[in-house]
């Protein structure tokens, strides 16, 4: 016998153990085994062609895959066409077909796999399940729209009165400005003729070797060409320092700086601190005493050159890190170090010479 699923030969069941034979029976020879004919038995006419073994002609049950006599694989019978009736609407339960769609074997209700060929019946059941009908969405109920309000009466705007615009006054160009301040030329670095160190154009002395830079400092700044709109030179204005008013009789004179070359006296500020330097509107530097009219620009005076402070009844002078240094009685002051002043002391800011006075 053979397995009807895989064709493996099955073992015969062992017979019950024979009873103990007598010595006479044991000595008797065994009867010869019958010889089977090798001729194949005729195939039954009633069996269908699909269930007859092509090797030995044995009749097999329809749907078996291997011959039960010789184990030869049987050809799968072709399934007969089955009329498919219209199925009702799909339900949640999936039923398996009564016959295997692959080999045509008869199946029991609830089988998920074919016992003959092992086909998955669930996939065939899903394939034959009709798709769910599409549910058309109900048409949206149109919203009620408010009736349009009657158009308001058109109001004709009054005609605009034509107003003649007066022509804008012409703006005078740069040539009409009387007191136009010329654009300062960019500063360039120069070299000291004595030691070759770099110095600024306005320096009167070299800060490295102390050599005079009169010729270098007097070099015109117009040597550097700047592409600007030409402006007319303002008319020269004769600015002369006004003579200081004499203090009234009986009032002591305030401390002041005297310019020996012109005799002009420059009183200190009324407060406790007086800044001396050169006025520069572009840098917003406005010192209390401006040395520009007294040769400050040509003499190398810095914008914030030095200051004089009244501290504890004593006037002191302090250099503010000026470019060309501050000299007190021909001694160079260290920047940021205050030194006491006395009446008649000589102060040099660059090349501008001053005398400090405290009494009349």
Account of the 3D structure:
- Strand 12 and strand 13 form a beta hairpin.
- With 360 residues, the protein is mostly beta strands.
- It is rod-shaped and about 155 Å long.
- The protein contains three helices and 13 strands.
- The longest helix has 8 residues, at 121-128.
- The termini are far apart.
- Helix content is 5%, strand content 14%.
- The strands form three sheets. The chain has a six-stranded antiparallel beta sheet, with no helix packed on it.
Task: Break the fold down into its secondary structure elements and pairings.
Layout: H1 23-27, H2 121-128, E1 190-191, E2 198-199, H3 214-217, E3 256-259, E4 264-267, E5 273-277, E6 289-290, E7 304-311, E8 314-319, E9 326-328, E10 331-332, E11 339-340, E12 346-349, E13 352-357
Parallel strand pairs: 5-6
Antiparallel strand pairs: 1-2, 3-4, 3-13, 5-7, 7-8, 8-11, 9-10, 9-12, 12-13
What key phrases describe this protein's structure?
360 residues; mainly beta; Tumour Suppressor Smad4; five-stranded mixed beta sheet
Strand order of the largest sheet: 4-3-13-12-9-10
Q: Helix/strand/pairing class, anyone?
A: mainly beta
Radius of gyration: 65 Å
Q: What's the tally of helices?
A: 3
Task: Find the count of extended strands (DSSP E, 2+ residues).
Answer: 13
Return the CATH architecture of the domain at 256-357. Answer: Sandwich
The SSE order reads HHEEHEEEEEEEEEEE
């Amino acid at each position: 016998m053979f397995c009807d699923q895989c064709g493996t030969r099955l073992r015969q069941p062992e017979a019950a153990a024979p009873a103990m034979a007598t010595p006479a029976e044991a000595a008797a020879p065994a009867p010869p085994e019958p010889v089977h004919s090798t001729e194949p038995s005729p195939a039954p006419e009633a069996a269908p062609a699909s269930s007859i073994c092509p090797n030995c002609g044995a009749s097999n049950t329809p749907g078996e895959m291997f011959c039960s006599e010789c184990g030869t694989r049987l050809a799968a019978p072709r399934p007969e066409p089955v009329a498919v009736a219209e199925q009702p609407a799909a339900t949640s339960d999936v039923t398996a077909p009564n016959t295997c769609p692959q080999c045509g074997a008869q199946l029991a209700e609830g089988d998920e796999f074919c016992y003959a060929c092992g086909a998955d019946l669930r996939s065939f059941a899903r394939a034959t399940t009709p798709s769910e009908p599409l549910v058309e969405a109900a048409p949206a109920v149109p919203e009620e729209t408010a009736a349009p309000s009657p158009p308001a009466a058109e109001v004709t705007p009054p005609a605009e009165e034509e107003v003649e615009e007066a022509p804008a006054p012409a703006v005078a160009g740069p040539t009409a400005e009387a007191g136009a301040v010329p654009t300062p030329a960019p500063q360039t670095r120069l070299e000291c003729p004595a030691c070759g160190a770099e110095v600024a154009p306005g320096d009167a002395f070299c800060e490295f070797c102390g050599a005079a830079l009169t010729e270098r400092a007097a070099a015109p700044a117009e040597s550097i060409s700047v592409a600007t709109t030409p402006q007319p030179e303002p008319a020269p204005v004769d600015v002369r320092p006004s003579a200081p008013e004499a203090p009234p009789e009986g009032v002591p004179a305030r401390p002041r700086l005297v310019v020996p070359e012109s005799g002009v006296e420059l009183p200190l500020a009324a407060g406790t601190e007086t800044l001396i330097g050169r006025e520069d509107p572009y840098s917003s530097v406005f010192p209390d005493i401006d040395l520009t009219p007294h040769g400050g620009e040509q003499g190398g005076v810095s914008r914030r050159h030095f200051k004089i402070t009244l501290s504890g009844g004593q006037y002191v002078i302090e250099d503010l890190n000026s470019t060309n240094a501050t000299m007190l009685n021909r001694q160079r002051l260290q920047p940021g170090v205050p030194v006491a002043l006395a009446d008649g002391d000589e102060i040099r800011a660059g090349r501008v010479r001053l005398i400090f006075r405290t009494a009349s």
